[in-house]
Amino acid sequence: MADSIIDAQKSLGKSLFQAGASEDREIADYIRDQGQRLAKILNGLFRLTKTHRLNNSAFNAPTIEFVNVLTSLYETIGPIHILCVENQVYVNDVRIRFEAHLEHSMALGRDLRRHNSGGVTFNEPLEDEEVRIFIRLLAADPAPSNPRTTLQQNLVGEGMSSCQLHPGYRFKIKGDEERKVDQDFKEVYAQSANVVADVFGDLGANRLPNPLPVRRTVNALVDLSQGADAARLASEADEALPNFSRHVMMVTNLSILIARTAEFSDATCGDIGVAAMFHDVGFTMKEDGYTVSYERHTRAGLRVLLRQRGFHESKIRRILTIIQHHRDYTDSKGVPSLYARVVHIADDYDILTRNRPGMGPVLAPPDAIARMAAQSGKAYDPVLLQIFINTMGPFPPGSMLKLADGSLVVTVSAVRDDSLFDKPLARLVRDGKGEMAPPDTIIDLAEAPEVVKIIRPTG
Amino acid sequence: MPEAPKNDDLLTEPAEAPPLEGEEAEDPVGDEPILGESAPGQAASEAMRSLARCARSFLIYDASNNAIRNFLEEMRTKWQWFFDRHGDLAVSIRPWEMVLDGEVVYLERDRERSLAFRLYRDGVRRLRFKADTPWEEMIRFLGILSVRFTGIRLQEDDIVTLLWKAGFQHIEVDAVEGLAPEDDETAAEIAASGKKSKAKSRTQAVVFDAPYQFDYPWPKFEERVAVALRKPTKETLAKLAAEDSSQALPHQCVQLLDEVLDAMRDPIDTIPLSDAMPLIREIRDFLLSEGFIDALVEVVNSINLYTEPDDEEDTRALLLDAFTGELAMRRIIQSMRQDETEAPPELNTLLELVPGDHGNAILNILAVERSPSARAVTCDLLRRLMQGDVQRLCERIRASSDAPVTCDMLVVLADIDLEAAIQLAAELVTSKEPEIQFECLRILEPATYSPEIGRALTNALTAPSEEVRLRALRLLVLQRESRSFDTVVNLIQERSTTDLEPLEATALGEAMTHLNQDEAMVLFKAWVKPPKFLFFFSQPQPGQAMLRWAAVSGLAHVPGDDAEKLLRWLAKRAGEQLYQHCMKAIAKQRRLEASDG
What we know:
heterodimer, A: about 450 residues, alpha+beta, 5-stranded antiparallel β-sheet, 16 helices, 13 strands, B: about 600 residues, mainly alpha, about 60% helix, disordered N terminus
């Protein structure tokens, strides 16, 4: 009995130590202080419009202060997001405290809500005059219809497209509504591209790494990929993304897929996903104005992540991934870390199979997976690679195949069941007579003529 | 669109809302009121109250504190009581309250103290604890709450992530998991957001449009093999999963340090020490606090391997100092088990790997460490490190002003070099600290006779501590230092009128006999039977009672009729206590004679 209490004390002490060790007190204090200042000044400026004309000198001091704080914050953490949700105000995820009255925090939310908006992002610092324009437009009466869209257009019209308005939000509680997995997955996947862009943009501008938004996104992907054909969904969602984001997201998704098939815990899947998201972060660095070369990008990635303070096991494993993800299983420096071995497979597979404008993929997916399979135990961890093969099958999603009856299909599913290892679902492109098939005609290769040829699209 | 906050800012903040009228600020651990009308309500209230108190307690107590133990015990009792009688416990979380089936079972309006407010602000809206929730799972849940209460801002995990990662089997948490759009205008925007993934700013544009080589060069594999389904065994998967366990982390830390050290010595693309040092320190602190000495040994090996000894910037020295300097050593020692009394071999190996003098560092640690196990381990290290440097240890002992530290160092010195310890003990036995004097006497006990020791012991007879004086006396007897006889006699005579107590008088009397029986006998007679003219014509002399007591004690060790006659004579005239003392002395004397015969 007493032992379990002592064990509990030890366990709690350890939890607190670990949490404390992962904290970067300096940056936390900075964001809290400056974020609070920024939100308060903005709130003050709005309140001032209720009692003073905009040309009143009373606006001068707070406007200058707002410009200074916004610039200082931007230089440290990048774009500033101010969101108002249920009477709470957040600056880049930091909840802001208005010490006087709750009313004050609600006032900022109310002013934005008049325009059907729940927040604003400053993608760049503002000049003194721009702050005044921003306040003027927000203080004006909202448009009778689509007020937020109108306000956004007005901002663009004033040359302030870097100010981005957000819709109003309410907290979404788990279990609020039934998930539409496919739709949600694609939505999260697409939104993740923005997160990637934000994070990489900030890192490229020499700001401090902030893994939290990435982690949230990855956790959502881990949740949504449970029981879903994530390989198929990702390849469908992939098409809408910009080039680099596509790569990062696909490597992330495939890494999570391997981790899940390896029966790792959700937490590990999430950590591997975050590591995969950051695996090419070195490319955000510049040397003499140019993006770092392939040869130097892992070292550059190390430099980027060395800027993050605080000990966390995920961080240790993430940095190892960045450094080691191009190394072979038999590398002379030793077997790379687990995450690096996972990401290595996902990374190479995407590089080999991603469609390139004008030339198609380097290899057709079935060819890529067959050649990677030949590297089992050499370039790749044999167990992890086999897990990947078990998931993707010989005809991974996106494989273009010619069947015995002459029809042309593109596979759209990964392995559905062990017994259907080489029989995925496929979209019919042309039938046996060479006729174009109706859109979205899905056939089951388990019930179709055998595959006679693998075709590599040429762009 | 920015990532929507799912929870609070994870910062410690003072109370936003003023306390209710008439409410006074309380200590952070104090209790909320017990609420609830029904039996389940009251039991739930007590359970939640105990949970809140535990979570708050880390604000003021260290996790190992006894107070925490009491809170945990109370919590376990209250929760078990609820589970046993009422089954599952499910509550809704409101900003100030927790509600069980419509009944408020927790209410606390002080934001700093309120468990409900913390949970609500963190996005938690409903909690359900199954009746068979294991204690271990409750503790993990409490751990997450405690992190919030102590105000640590987490950069890797927010509270919802922590709850998500915890993967509770018996505790269900309904938490805010994002933001939902509120109107059509919003919905349209969200639906389109995936399609519109383009640069939102100049910075992003740079990222998107940069001529990346991220997919170059692609792997060139000529060989192909047919792929087949092969299921890995459970053991194989478990082996993989073990690589992500906390046990694997120290090795991964070492692996990462190797990579960083390698990058630091790369002449073309060097990572400067200043960039790497924060990470190196974080890893060091982790390894030290958890006591992963094996990993530290690996790290030191790596540092020796990857750095040059004569580097201009002293990189090797700086790194080695970070991992094996005084601060590092102190943390290692603190991380040891409470029952540890010897330095583990890995720690000795670690010190051997690092050139230089660790003695001073360890001596400094001994000077400040208070836990018994840490001191024992430190002493053990000193035994090895100070072998060839007894002189320095002696100097530190002489300079030490802290009695327990001095004593520990004396013990170490005695273990290394008994002769040097005896010499120093003879010097320090006159110290004003009884603890040191006593330790010195312990060291002097096996010493062979020397005039220096005799003098030192004689000096110790005037020590303020009775315990020390008695021990010194015993040693003088053992040493047969007859020159101290006069000192002993003077002590008895002087103190017999002031503060001499029977116990010490006994020891002194016995010592007189052992040191010089003949002279003692003369004095005993005088003390027991004073000259007749004094005996008949005057009142008893001051101190005579104690002088007689000492004499009786001494006479007990003098064989022969003279001594017994004296004792009998005195017994007839003595009060009850002295009479008993005389009788015992006679009995002792007879036993002595019998054994001699």
